[in-house]
Amino acid sequence: MEKMRELGGVLKTLRHGRVSKKYCPKCGSSDIGLSGGFGFGFVPQKYLCRSCGYFGPIIMELEKEENQKPSA
Q1: How does pLDDT run across 11-33, given as a tens digit for each residue?
Q2: pTM (2 d.p.)
Q3: What pLDDT digit, counting tens, does each position of 34-53 carry?
Q4: What's the CA dihedral at 31, 34, 36, 40 to 10 degrees?
Q5: Which residue in 15, 42, 11, 48 sits closest to 29, CA to CA?
Q6: Class of residue 72 by CB neighbours under 10 A (exposed 0-12, middle 13-18, buried 19+)
Q7: Which of 45, 50, 63, 65 has the fewest CB atoms found within 10 Å of its own CB?
Q8: How many Cα neighbours within 13 Å face the side chain of 41?
Q9: 43 exposed, middle or buried (CB, 10 Å; 0-12, 13-18, 19+)?
Q10: Could you tell me the sign of the dihedral formed by the alpha carbons of 50, 21, 17, 43, in that order?
């Protein structure tokens, strides 16, 4: 039963449906996108940075906090 409570806590912390900004882990550029290919869930998605040429499965994401006021 304790495992179910832990799982419930984890699921509550997930943020589905929120848009997040993606950044290159190498140069910090936001000019990054998914590379083509067919993963079908078996192969991790790979990203390509158009600024520095980084290619790999790891990216940085930044989500705006709900309480954070929009910058003017």
Answers
A1: 655 555 566 789 999 999 999 99
A2: 0.57
A3: 887 655 667 788 999 999 99
A4: 180
A5: 48
A6: exposed
A7: 65
A8: 0
A9: exposed
A10: positive
